[in-house]
């Protein structure tokens, strides 16, 4: 082979390269380069016109300098000049420079395109190939615009040389990938497909990449390629190892083409034509058979080429997922590779088995290799192979082997490489949740995770364990006991403190009976960790403390002491300070019942996709999650607010005053539509359970004038109302909780029929747009036509007056009485607040029994005034009430009595 | 499709880089640095494949040079290993027992050979003969082009 070229060409270049290599320091190199750049610049600027050879040499030097990593800001024009040279090598260097260094200078692109056009039409195959290479290398939109229609013509023309066809096919592929809209195959489709039959193997090899890409995008138009590909594959597979001459590679016939054909077939379902399918299955069987034959060469190239085809065939078998026989054979073959001495093969076998594990036909066969895979996880010396083994264990996990696999992964975690720990943690967490039969195992596993690899346990993981514990009351006691024990460890991870704080704050009462974990012991244990923790954890612990005050009144003094100390109440961190101040105040002023309402146990979290799974998907990309998982979790649309929105922190932050009043209930979370911004969202009808719960909310407002009426993931509706005589004004606040705009926002007030008849409601229309995160206000003017409870005016009166009026209203229809079980707290203060909220006057010293409440008020309507007297007799022991109402209008007593009975 | 191919030395000197998708220079430099670090840190008996970002990396060491290719998710690792080998064979045949210096001093030739073999990240021809014939032809054209020059002229001293 020609030593002709070696160093012959440009001696000046060789000298320059030598100089650079001899530079002892980076500075010297830069100095030498700057000298050369100055020299070249002066040559290009000089008066003397440079000959083609010099231009080529200098352009080549610039290229070398650029490839060393330095910026080049001139010489482009000289390179473009070289393109129109008649000398091949000058043209070649010009094209090389352009390919490597082209910039978006449109002036230049036009010149380059001109030169390319000339070369394409030159009919000189070597020039045409250079031009095609340049287009493929640059692949810019401008080039696609200029040449996308020309290249298919070159590709299929009868008189085009084979080498040009090859370049044209790949050039077209490149343009199709960058600007698919400009490459219109239409009339060329069938002729391009028939390139699969071309006699020249090189042409087929190049064309098949193009056909595969086109088939992926337009499978129907190209589906005739399937039978052509099968017959071509069949000819190659059955050929003797020397038939294909130069296309045989280390005794393997056309390995590249075979792989490409098998890849092309993976764009389609199994062939429908029986004969074609039969032939293909035969091919696949032959490939599997050949894997068992003794090698024809000891060279690694031979086995690599052979196995490349084998792995591609296995991919096709997995893709079809319809031939149990082939699937099991593939699995057995991979099983052999699992123990192969070549690391590369073990790696690929583990990788390939991962996809086999998700097929129902081969899942069981894959599972038989569990011991080998566990062994690989323990003994492989290469972390990337161990990673594959972990992936496979994850993929083959099911209910039958989950405990074994999770245990192995956990024990591997202790020594696992840092690079894969986080992913391993996620996988263990997912498997533990997915296959948990008893949830105490799940809790143990997650706590072990935190113990072993606490630093790698992301928020999603510990949020999830809390979500699950809160949603399953059968595991709450166990969880409390276990975290309590885990927290005993002298050095425990901060994540453990978070989980511990949260769970004891919610469920510490479940273990408080045991003197070893009495409330104060629990508190002291948590508080012993406090000073070692970061701000967010401390904030969480403070919330746990206030929950303790509610759960265990006996800890109140101790905890208040802690909250009161300067390091809390004057903490420099605003969040901590605020919590300390608020919690302290809350615990001192609120009655136990108010506390109980505010600090009620967390409501169950809405069931939805595990946030951990979402994280793993994000980490690995959608391709990496096995098919079964994706199917398990098709309900992804609900993830509008992300996994963390109901995270424990947000839930226990008592910021809006509405929360403190205990009005906000668990927000009904409807199936929020994906991409809410563009959709018309009818929150009430769409959020299925919302309507009844809104009604429930409504009853809360009998005794209260403001709060949150409705809330879901998208929208919060707040209400504020004021009443004077028979007129009322209600403000509705619509808050957009998303970050996108609500367009065409409409709200209609639909009152329940029976109320509607008694009210005259005027609404002011609101703007149909609500910006993301913004709130708009709507005013409703209400006039009470008949009696309606919110239009109460208090009437103060003395004991005598009361009884006098009471007796006046003695007709049977005027009185309504109801005895009912207490629905809410029977705390005196709460009851008082409710009765005042109703709008009546609360009369002291009227009833001889101080436990009873007596009220008086007047309901103002448009036409009349209705006097009302009320007596409420609580019986704390029996948790019952007796409510008696006497009103000057018959129907009112009954109505009010029913309405109010639900309030206590 | 191959996204890029890098040739670098044991000492971390980049000898050849071919990018098959448009990539900003800054990103290229960052990727090269990152990959060299990863690959050079690996021990000899380790596997030739690794996952990196959303790509698969296939690499092999020949004497002092590492050949490193980035391929896509659905591409075949083993056949890529043989793409590398075939490229080495082509270089070897052309330069006659190729060494790192050949590639340093004749970098443009290395690019031409690679271009004849791979185009747009896909195989253009796998036949050694066809590829070498194309290169040979251009060399013949070069010989015809070039008139002998004096050494002084070469050095720019004439």
Automatic annotation (TrEMBL), chain A:
It comes from Cynoglossus semilaevis. GO terms for molecular function: clathrin adaptor activity. A 1,2-diacyl-sn-glycero-3-phospho-(1D-myo-inositol-3,4,5-trisphosphate) binds at residues 11-12, 43, 53, 57-61. Residues 624-660 are annotated as: Disordered. GO terms for cellular component: AP-2 adaptor complex. This is AP-2 complex subunit alpha. Belongs to the adaptor complexes large subunit family. Keywords: Cell membrane, Coated pit, Endocytosis, Membrane, Protein transport, Transport. It is found in: Cell membrane; Membrane, Coated pit. InterPro entries: Adaptor_Complx_Large_Subunit (IPR050840), AP2_complex_asu (IPR017104), ARM-like (IPR011989), ARM-type_fold (IPR016024), Clathrin/coatomer_adapt-like_N (IPR002553), Clathrin_a-adaptin_app_sub_C (IPR003164), Clathrin_a/b/g-adaptin_app_Ig (IPR008152), Clathrin_app_Ig-like_sf (IPR013041). It comes from the Eukaryota. It is a peripheral membrane protein. Residues 699-795 form the Clathrin adaptor alpha/beta/gamma-adaptin appendage Ig-like subdomain domain. Component of the adaptor protein complex 2 (AP-2). Adaptor protein complexes function in protein transport via transport vesicles in different membrane traffic pathways. Adaptor protein complexes are vesicle coat components and appear to be involved in cargo selection and vesicle formation. AP-2 is involved in clathrin-dependent endocytosis in which cargo proteins are incorporated into vesicles surrounded by clathrin (clathrin-coated vesicles, CCVs) which are destined for fusion with the early endosome. One of its GO terms (biological process) is intracellular protein transport. Adaptor protein complex 2 (AP-2) is a heterotetramer composed of two large adaptins (alpha-type subunit AP2A1 or AP2A2 and beta-type subunit AP2B1), a medium adaptin (mu-type subunit AP2M1) and a small adaptin (sigma-type subunit AP2S1).
TrEMBL record, chain B:
Transmembrane segments: none annotated. Its main location: membrane. It comes from the Eukaryota. It is a peripheral membrane protein. PROSITE patterns: CLAT_ADAPTOR_S (PS00989). Keywords: Coated pit, Cytoplasmic vesicle, Golgi apparatus, Membrane, Protein transport, Transport. It is found in: Cytoplasmic vesicle membrane; Golgi apparatus; Membrane, Clathrin-coated pit. One of its GO terms (biological process) is intracellular protein transport. One of its GO terms (cellular component) is AP-1 adaptor complex. GO terms for molecular function: clathrin adaptor activity. Residues 1-140 form the AP complex mu/sigma subunit domain. The keyword Protein transport applies. CDD domains: AP1_sigma. Belongs to the adaptor complexes small subunit family. Adaptor protein complex 1 (AP-1) is a heterotetramer composed of two large adaptins (gamma-type subunit AP1G1 and beta-type subunit AP1B1), a medium adaptin (mu-type subunit AP1M1 or AP1M2) and a small adaptin (sigma-type subunit AP1S1 or AP1S2 or AP1S3). This is AP complex subunit sigma. The lineage of its organism: Eukaryota, Metazoa, Chordata, Craniata, Vertebrata.
